[in-house]
Amino acid sequence: MSVFVEFQNVRKTYKTGELEIHALRDVNFEINKGEFCVIVGASGAGKTTILNILGGMDTLTDGHVWLDGTEISSYNKKQLTAYRRYDVGFVFQFYNLVGNLTAKENVELAAQICKDPLDAEEVLMQVGLGERMKNFPAQLSGGEQQRVAIARALAKNPKLLLCDEPTGALDYNTGKAVLKLLQDTCRKKGMTVVVITHNSALAAMADRIITVKSGTVSSIRMNDHIVDVADIEW
Amino acid sequence: MKRNMMRRTTLREIRATLGRFLAIMAIIMLGVGFFAGIRVTMPDMIATVDRFFEEGNLYDFRLVSTLGWEEQDVDALREQEGVRFAEGCHSLDVICEGEDETGFVLKTHSIPKDINLLQLTEGRMPESPDECLMDAGMAETTGMIVGSTVRVSDSNDEDTIDALKYQEFKVVGACHSTYYLNFERGTTSIGDGTVRAYLYLPPESFDVDYYTEIFVSLDNDDAIYSKPYKDTIKALTPVWENLTETQATARYDRIVADAEAEIADGREELEEKRAEGQQELDDAKKELRDGKQELDDAEQELADAKQELEDAVQELTEAKEELDKAEQELADGKKKLDDSKEELDKAEKELADGKQQLDDNGKKLEDAKRQLDESEQQIKDGESQLAAGQQQLDAAWAEINAGAAQIDDAESQLATQEQAVQMQIEQLQPMWDMLPEETKAQLTAAQEQINAARAQIQAQRAALDAGRQQVQENQDTLNAKKQELAAGRAAFEAGRSEYENGKRQYDEAVAKYEEGKAKFEDGKKQYEDGLKDYEDGVKQFEEGKQKYEDGLKEYEDGKQKYEDGLVEFEDGKKEYEDGLKEYKDGKKEFDEKIADAEQELADAEQEVADLEKPDTFVLDRNTNIGYSCFESDSQIVDQVAQVFPVFFILVAILVCMTTMSRMVEEQRTQIGVLKALGYSEFTIMGKYMAYSGIAAVIGCILGYAMGSLVFPTVIWMSYELMYIPLPLIYVLNWKLALAMLGVSLLCSMGTTWLSCRIELSETAASLMRPKAPKAGKRVLLEYLPFIWNRLKFLHKVSIRNIFRYKRRFFMMVFGISGCMALLLTGFGLRDSVAGFADIQYGEIILADAQAGFKESYSEVLPADLQKIIDDNTESCLLMHAGSWDLVTEEKVKSLTLMAPYETERIADYMELHTMTDEPIPFPEVGEAVISNSIHDRYGINTGDTVTLRNEDLQEIHVRISGIFENHVYNYIMMRPETIKEQTGDMPEINSAFLNFPEDADVYQLSAEISKDDRVTTILLFDELRERMNKMMGSLNYIVLLIIACAAGLAFVVLYNLTNINITERIREIATIKVLGFFKNETSAYVLRENLALTIIGIGVGIVLGIMLNHYVIDHIIVDLVSFRNQVMPLSYVYSIALTLSFNVIVNLFMGIKLERINMAESLKSVD
């Protein structure tokens, strides 16, 4: 399998006055296409910074990031926006749905700006919300909202699906259902999915597990015994 | 401690959310500023004018009597209770000319001492009666300047000219008068009917013995226009009417009594004069008779004198003959004398020659004798000299010899001495060296002394030899001289004998000369006797001749005297004849004069009998144009003040409410925590109350300060085009300020309280949980699928957002529409005001000019005047134009009545149409049309009947048949027949509309016409239009002020709404940024709502603006000018463009803010 995502000696430094804080240093890892990758680490370890950089929401101080053969670390602001627009799908911890739009409209909001979007209704049907398309987010449960969020990310037909603690705000069962949806998406559609979590239990379901610690990658390992979501306990 | 903490978090909150704080502050500031500004303007203006009137001591009553007043009337009124001052003044309307000889009517007043005081603006007060002060606005209206001269025109009637002491007045200063607050100068019955300016003259400049009016100032300091003042005046008016009536009647009685006394005096005087005159005539007659007698006497005297003169001529002729004879005789005697004189002179000469010769010879002899004597003496002297010389020489020889012997002795002595010394030396030689030095020196000195003496002896011997030599030489010389002397003595002896012979010859010649001389003396004596005789004869003749000439002179004098007498006589005769004639003329004149005087007395008696009892008027301040105009003008602002602030208050409430509720929502968790920690609701709420309260207080103070400074200042500036410039007084109205503060606090803290109350009612636990987001809602439009489905997806989002928050929606719509309405009103105001002169002189008055005549003519103009006008114009329309008073119950208002003679031709000069441009037919007899300003101001409508009164107090009643659009002056128009019908007389022609040919030089043509003395003025309407347009330019300040307020309103509202939107939707915005919305897409997503709301606001604003504009224009009625309510299309464009550009500016700012939103916000949890 080919290397899809590659971090090469990535360093991210925040400057606050005289003080330099190294959020990331010497981060090196690769993710292959179609893999389900879990990046795990404690709070403040640098997971979110990696996500921000990979998602094109932040720039890095030093090093290179490649996605599908293109170096995104050399993009300017506008190119980054285009990158987020066309290549990346986001799933947020708190769903981040637009309250004033119905489920379908929320999906359309993302689909609207894509080159080759999937049909909103179809995607919603796929995530199991065929019946609730016309509901506003306030009328949906947390799991349903997260499904809408996933549908919104998928409708863009991205190269990469980035999920930030997708189950963080959900109860146990709902969280499981959402994870299942993500895993299925990966398996069925061959989508590269990167999940960022502090919950190491989730690692069991991933193809590749990247552990982050104190701003750097402490281990990368391939999972030989992939466990089905339903069997994971935490 | 707790307090402190709360204070700190409040202050920190303000710092953190400065934009929000400023928004509340700004909207409160705007609202308060606008409200307070407009509210304080009228009190400020009234205070300013009140101060001006108080300082200038404006009158309370103006008393006018048809008979005028005297000083004693003034004194009597001054004594009345409650009177502070009373002063009699002169005033007179005069046609004047400036230096370029243009004529205009000026109102002249006497310079007052106590009442209606003047404010010198330039130059100085007059110091002599031929100086004056001019109206400070006069340069504008007449072109006169300080330093120029005002001439009283010859076209004034005689009474006017006589009433002034001088025909020319030098303008020494300019002033403002308390009596003239604005630039209206009123109307007059002379000239063109318009008083152009006033002139203040020293009282002495008036040559009249009565006052035109008395001004009374009461002991009352109530503010102008105030109710107490009005009540006081109302109560006092009847009292003063009585007083005035009484005083005027007294004056009438006095005049009658005086006149009767005067007539009696006159009659007495007449009798006296008659007697006096008769006496004079009699005296003259007597004098003439005496003169005649005198003339006769003189004639006789002249005849006598003539006879005497003739006798004298005879006598003189005889004397002349005798004189001639004597003269001949004298001439003969003279000839003889001259002959003998010649002979004598010859003899005398001969004698003189002889004498000369004798004298010469005598002199020669004497010389010879003297020479001989001298020679003898010389010889004798020589001999004695020689003897003395010989003696001297002998003595010398002896002396020399004695000297030689002496020298020889000295020589031998010396040799002895030398020898002794020499010996001594030789003796000492061997022991020379042992010798003491002293001895050596002594010896040497002795040796030297000897040597010196030898040298001296040798010198003496040489001198002696020289002396011997010289004596020898002298001996030789002496011998030679002895020889010479002996030869001299021989020559002397020969000379003496020659001299003795000469002397003898000379004595003989002297004897002969003495003989001739005696003979000559005898002849001379004879001649001198003859000469004496002759001279006596001449003298006698001269005397005779003198006597004759004196006689002749006497005769000529006599003749001259006679001739003079004759002339004098002739003169006397003539004089007598003149005197006689004069006497006859004088007698005739005397008779005539007596007859005239008798007639005059009779007339005076008649006049007194005819003298009517006087009419009196008590006029209060309301009849003063400046005073009454200012009252209504200052009310305009107050009326406008009723509407505007409503917007601001409404918007302020909405802004505060949305802002504060948003703030409270944001800090929900914090409130929950505080509540959980046990803080009381009151303390928690305190923070927000303090936040909004501080903003309100600061905003209120700033707003009040700025509003109450800026508004009155700007509005006052625009009033300056109608009123004299006064420094505005700013009155601090504490009550209003406190009320504003109360409203501000209520508005800000009240809304805060409302917002907090809802949140605080929840439990701490639920507060700490995130608030359930407000459910999305469908809007009405969605139920119209045919529209909804066609909308772009993102537009749908915006539409839903717009209607999601009602409060914000209304805040925006009110704010933006308020802004739009304000702008539209501002520009509309300018359009209406700027355009009125163009409409007035472009669409209503179509004539080119209006002429005023000096006199009034009935029915037609004099043919030659008509011809001058016809030659220089294309056409003209004659009319009566006069000042008439509209009599209503409350006030008397002066209007301009126009009655054109050929009403069928009016259409070429004036277009009568309604405000909605519908034409109005010219009124029929008994009807009149009025200008819309009269309608607006006095509520007179079509179909009403009004009463008009002219200067002669004739009244007419007319029915109003229409109201026509007219913006300058208050016109009432009717047919002249209407006046004739009611007063019996056709109103006289005193004015005309003129139309000049196209492309003609109107200035030249109008000048041609005004050359005629009977044309007093020509008013060129184009010129007037330009002047008015210029004057109205100052309204731009108000427009700018309104634009500034509108901009402020728009900015605050737009900024606030956008700010709330952004802070509230920060997650949403971050999310769509993460989703990959480009910069402009993100901006559009958020700001599209602003644009949509702005457009809705503009739509509402246009409607509001039109209404507001109507309201404002309807309430702005300047006394002689009313504006047409019109808003130009361009003004709509400007207003919309400005409103949109405010939106764009805010959006640009907000775009930057959006740009700064960090996408990481999307990852945060909801709080």
How would you describe what is shown here?
The complex is a heterodimer of chains A (234) and B (1167). Chain A is an alpha/beta fold and 234 residues long. Helices cover 28% and strands 30% of the residues of chain A. Chain A contains six helices and ten strands, in the order E-E-E-H-E-E-H-E-H-H-H-E-H-E-E-E. In chain A, a hairpin with a 2-residue loop joins strand 4 and strand 5. In chain A, helix 3 packs parallel to helix 5. Chain A is globular, with a radius of gyration of 17 Å. The relative contact order of chain A is 0.19. Chain B is 66% helix and 13% strand. In chain B, the strands form four sheets. A six-stranded mixed β-barrel of chain B has the order 3-4-9-6-8-7. In chain B, strand 13 and strand 14 form a beta hairpin. The radius of gyration of chain B is 69 Å and the shape is flat. The mean pLDDT of chain B is 84. Chains A and B meet through helix 2 and helix 3 of A and helix 15 and helix 23 of B.
Give the key terms.
heterodimer, A: 234 residues, alpha/beta, Rossmann fold, six-stranded mixed sheet, four-stranded antiparallel sheet, 6 helices, 10 strands, 28% helix, globular, B: 1167 residues, alpha+beta, 25 helices, 66% helix, 13% strand, flat
- Give the CA-based shape of chain A: globular
Question: How are strands sequenced across the largest beta sheet of chain B?
Answer: 3-4-9-6-8-7
Work out the count of structural domains of chain A: 2
How would you describe the shape of chain B? flat
